[in-house]
Amino acid sequence: MIQFEVEASFQYKGSGQSAYFSASSYDEVISEMKRIWYRAGLVFNRDEAFLIVHLSVDGVEQRLYIGDFVFDDELQLCGMHHINDQKPIYDVLSNLCFTFDEYEDPEYLFEKIIRFLFEKNTPEKLLGSWLIKLSLENFDFKGIEPEQAIIAHLLKFSDQQEKLFEMYHWCLSPDGEKFFDSNDSFPYAANCICDELKEITEGNFKNLSMNADEENEEDLDESENLEENTDDAPLIKEKILENLRRYISLYERPLPFELKLE
């Protein structure tokens, strides 16, 4: 549940009385906003109201202004988020990997923010916010690169959720590649993830195996015979998973921020 606040503004003269409510979905937020608008006696073309969200960010309570809104005579919502005036919420949501576009329609942005607040465990919110936190840290791992430790942590997290192969495929998909290139606040490691995973698939990384070349030849033979013998597909999957887990064992290190499901 997320706590919200509605401030009434009679005759556009600023904040007046406030009402509070908790919601667990976008639809619940809109329903509560409508109820409060009606009970407060607000009138279209004379009054307006402000929507505020109360969030706990790194243990600190934040009161963040989302935007102003009205309901017309048919109780249809018109909510507006004006990006140039909202630096506090911009800073908080950007750290959660919400993307603002100054050219987006204010009504669309108002809805987009509310919906984003209820998203859980999406790549953007889960991985994005984690990568942004890591970008603020300096790493000094003897013998390995920071990006290797970050990638190993991502793979280990996925394996613990029994989603290692799914995460592997998503990272190498067009959606995954677009995501890792989507935010300048991501650390350098984000730009390496796709290339590194392609190397891991083939077993081409240092210290993986003394017989890496032989294993690569076997993988190549399996790939060439895949069309002739579809029974080889599970073997190829297992080989990829084996390489991914061996990568984890080599490069996994403690990080200041861990991936955690909400």
Secondary structure blueprint with pairings:
Elements lengths: L1 E8 L8 E6 L2 H14 L8 E10 L2 E12 L5 E4 L6 H9 L10 H12 L5 H13 L10 H15 L3 H9 L1 H7 L7 H15 L9 H13 L8 H19 L11
Antiparallel strand pairs: 1-2, 1-3, 3-4, 4-5
Helix pairs in contact: 5-6, 5-8, 5-10, 6-7, 8-10
Number of helices: 10
Low-confidence stretches: 207-232
Strands ordered across the widest β-sheet: 2-1-3-4-5
Mean pLDDT: 82
Strand count, sense and barrel status of the largest sheet are: 5 strands, antiparallel
Q: Which of globular, elongated, flat, extended, rod-shaped describes the shape?
A: elongated
Roughly how many Å apart are the termini? 12 Å
> How do the helices and strands follow one another from N- to C-terminus?
EEHEEEHHHHHHHHH
- What portion of residues belong to β-strands? 15-25%
What's the number of extended β-strand segments? 5
Radius of gyration: 24 Å
Derived from helix and strand composition plus strand pairing, the structural class reads alpha+beta
- What is the helix content? 40-55%
Overall description:
- By secondary structure, the protein is α+β, with helices and mostly antiparallel strands.
- 48% of the residues lie in helices and 15% in strands.
- It has ten helices and five strands; from the N terminus they run E-E-H-E-E-E-H-H-H-H-H-H-H-H-H.
- It has a five-stranded antiparallel beta sheet with strand order 2-1-3-4-5.
- The chain is elongated.
- The protein starts with a strand and ends in an 11-residue tail after the last helix.
